[in-house]
Amino acid sequence: MHKGLILENGLVSIEMVDVTLIEEQNNIWKIDTGSPHLICFKDTVSEIDVKHEGASIRNSSNYIKDGINVNFVQLSKMEFY
């Protein structure tokens, strides 16, 4: 179970379960964070019909039985603090 708190200083604290499954094939990652996720890296996510493409993957023969959350990710230059 994931837990979240809004702290007195306004920051958000998040506690998540450990990822129990990590698989990669052709730059598509399958992970389980308590529920399964398929993470698809794309050059430009704004050009994706997320509803159609996500539903197509979710309802494919590989995932129709148990289901999977489909995430599309576009990498950009970011700094983390």
Distance between the termini: 26 Å
Estimate the helix proportion, in percent.
10-25%
Enumerate how many helices there are, as a single number.
1
H-E string: EEEEEHE
Gross morphology is globular
Strand arrangement, largest sheet?
Answer: 3-4-5-6
**Spatial extent as radius of gyration:** 15 Å
Instruction: Please tell me the overall pLDDT.
Output: 89
Q: What ranges have pLDDT less than 50 throughout 5 or more consecutive residues? A: none
Our estimate of the beta-strand percent is 35-45%
Main beta-sheet strand count, sense and barrel state: 4 strands, mixed
DSSP, total strands: 6
Class inferred from helices and paired strands: mainly beta
If you had to describe this structure to a student in words, what would you say it looks like?
With 81 residues, the protein is mainly beta. It has a domain at 18-73. Helices cover 11% and strands 36% of the residues. The protein has one helix at residues 50-58, and strands at residues 3-6, 12-15, 21-25, 28-32, 36-41, 69-73. The strands form two sheets. Strands 3-4-5-6 form a four-stranded mixed sheet, with helices on one face. Strands 1-2 form a two-stranded antiparallel ribbon. The longest helix is centred in the middle third of the chain and has 9 residues, at 50-58. The chain is globular, with a radius of gyration of 15 Å. The chain starts with a strand and ends in an 8-residue tail after the last strand. The relative contact order is 0.17. The mean pLDDT is 89.
